[in-house]
């Protein structure tokens, strides 16, 4: 199950800014990251007049916009989905999910705290508070990091949720074309190949394996 860490805090406390610091630090360490943003006011991804907008206006329940490098899914929903539901229905092939908001969900939380915004934290340990990112030192029973200490927070996330989660890097090229592989396929392929190779004499502990098949 993909772990989720929620970044919570008051409006304009710096939740998005913190996510912008955590994501590249996680990526630098080799993890695949997904993010989920909660918007209580609703939002529009599509633009009026575009073909996909016209599909939706015509009554389509679900519209998928696909390109060689990106895709977007637009669909009607009848409730405000919980984080676990969003993960299980829509997200695969990542090592961790960072969400912005969702403070009422049960997932572990890092709260962004600024003393000029609020006198007390929104969350407590009973709310599954994992850590605090603050502009002053707080003694609240959980680790407290500076607002810019992305490395320290990722160290904590890695220790708590990502031991053994890093996906092996497996690259497949067929007829000169790169074929994208999900993390599940990469792990399966790596395990199979390493198992075969490690049985060969002199290859007991393979770390990097290269295979090329030519006709």
Structural description of this entry:
The structure is a single chain. The chain has 215 residues and is an alpha/beta fold. The chain folds into 2 domains: 4-48 and 76-161, P-loop containing nucleotide triphosphate hydrolases (Rossmann fold, 3-Layer(aba) Sandwich), CATH 3.40.50; 167-215, no CATH class. It has helices spanning 15-28, 51-57, 83-90, 150-161, 183-198; strands spanning 4-9, 33-37, 62-66, 71-75, 96-100, 109-113, 129-134, 144-146, 172-174, 177-179. The longest helix is centred in the C-terminal third of the chain and has 16 residues, at 183-198.
- What would CATH call the homologous superfamily of the largest domain? P-loop containing nucleotide triphosphate hydrolases
Number of domains: 2
Count of β-strands:
10
What CATH calls the topology of the largest domain is Rossmann fold
Overall radius of gyration: 21 Å
Keywords:
two-stranded antiparallel ribbon; 27% helix; 6-stranded parallel beta sheet; 10 strands; alpha/beta; Rossmann fold; 215 residues
């Amino acid at each position: 199950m993909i772990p989720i860490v929620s970044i919570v805090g008051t409006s304009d406390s710096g939740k998005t800014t913190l996510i912008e610091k955590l994501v590249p630090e996680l990526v630098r360490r080799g993890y695949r990251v997904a993010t989920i943003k909660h918007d209580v006011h609703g939002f529009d991804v599509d633009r009026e007049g575009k073909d996909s907008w016209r599909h939706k206006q015509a009554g389509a329940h679900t519209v998928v916009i696909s390109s060689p490098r990106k895709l977007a899914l637009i669909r009607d929903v009848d409730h405000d989905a919980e984080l676990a539901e969003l993960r299980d229905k829509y997200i695969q092939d990542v090592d961790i999910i960072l969400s912005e908001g969702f403070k009422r969900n049960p997932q572990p939380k890092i709260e962004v705290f600024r003393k000029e915004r609020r006198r007390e934290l929104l969350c407590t340990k009973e709310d599954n508070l994992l850590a605090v990112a603050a502009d002053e030192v707080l003694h609240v029973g959980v680790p407290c990091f500076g607002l810019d200490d992305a490395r320290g927070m990722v160290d904590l996330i890695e220790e708590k949720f990502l031991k053994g989660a890093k996906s092996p890097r497996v690259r497949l090229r067929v007829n000169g074309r790169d074929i994208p592989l999900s993390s599940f396929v990469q792990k399966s392929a790596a395990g199979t190949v390493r198992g075969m190779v490690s049985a060969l004499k002199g290859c007991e502990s393979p770390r990097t394996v290269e295979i090329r098949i030519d006709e």
